[in-house]
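This section describes the prediction task in plain terms. A model, or a person checking by hand, is given the sequence of a single protein chain and must write out its three-dimensional structure as a string of tokens. No templates, partner chains or ligands are provided. The sample shown here is typical of the held-out split.
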Amino acid sequence: MSQEKEMEFEPALKRLEAIVEQLEGGDLSLEQALKAYEEGVRMADVCSKRLTEAEKKVETLMKTAGGKFRTEPLAGVEDAATGTPKTKKKK
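The expected answer:
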């Protein structure tokens, strides 16, 4: 399970796709299907967490009145330090 915490998005997604293929194939016993399903749920959780982490890192590029660019956190994303929603700053 500790490997799953460190697993990156792409390998988790590939494993999830392989599990779905196995389950759709219908060649697994009930016990094998349940184990595969459980692993699939864990892989889906890893993917979801990685996507959430990526979303929190996304920043919107804004052009200032002076023609320069600045970055601003994506609206609606929580501040990782405080857990409070970030809002766009008004000028």
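For orientation: The chain has a mean pLDDT of 80.
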